[in-house]
């Protein structure tokens, strides 16, 4: 049986590795991946690069939030929306994990 985790669970484990064991972000990622793979966890839906070590959100999340803000704003200029859509398309074309994240951010 394949196990699945959320992006947040993965991010929390990486952060914990960094905080508790004084690992670099690269070491923490490598260790988290090894831990989850040893437990039979499917990581195909997980964005493995970590921008969270600086407290930032994933680019996909930021872009979807910006698109929501722009769609709720009353403006006559479509350029900012098109710009954010192009960013989202680039992010989603990277890996399936990015598309999964975008889909979850919509709701």
Structure, described:
The chain is mainly alpha-helical. It contains five helices and two strands; from the N terminus they run E-H-H-E-H-H-H. It has helices spanning 7-21, 25-38, 59-72, 79-92, 96-105, and strands spanning 3-4, 41-42. Strands 1-2 form a two-stranded parallel sheet. Helix 3 packs antiparallel against helix 4 (79-92) and helix 3 (59-72) packs parallel to helix 5 (96-105). The longest helix is centred in the N-terminal third of the chain and has 15 residues, at 7-21. It is elongated. The protein starts with a strand and ends with a helix. The mean pLDDT is 89. This is Armadillo repeat-containing protein 6 homolog isoform X2. It comes from Papilio xuthus.
Number of strands: 2
Please, what is the oligomeric state?
single chain
List the helices and strands in order.
EHHEHHH
* Beta-strand fraction estimate: under 5%
Which structural category do the helix and sheet elements fall into? mainly alpha
From the alpha-carbon coordinates, what is the Rg to the nearest angstrom? 16 Å
Strand order of the largest sheet: 1-2
- Residues in helix, %: 55-70%
Number of helices: 5
Query: Biggest sheet: strands, sense, closure?
Result: 2 strands, parallel
Mean of residue pLDDT values: 89
Contiguous uncertain segments of 5+ residues:
none
Quote the distance from N terminus to C terminus. 28 Å
What sort of overall outline do the alpha carbons produce when their principal axes are compared?
elongated
């Amino acid at each position: 049986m394949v196990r699945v985790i959320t992006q947040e669970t993965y991010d929390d484990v990486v952060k914990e590795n960094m905080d508790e064991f004084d690992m670099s972000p690269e070491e923490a990622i490598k260790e988290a991946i090894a831990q989850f793979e040893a437990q039979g966890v499917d990581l195909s839906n997980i964005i493995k690069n970590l921008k969270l070590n600086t407290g930032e959100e994933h680019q996909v999340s930021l872009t979807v939030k910006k698109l929501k803000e722009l769609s709720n704003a009353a403006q006559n200029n479509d350029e900012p929306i098109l710009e954010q859509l192009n960013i989202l398309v680039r992010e989603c074309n990277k890996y399936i994990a990015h598309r999964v994240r975008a889909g979850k951010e919509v709701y």
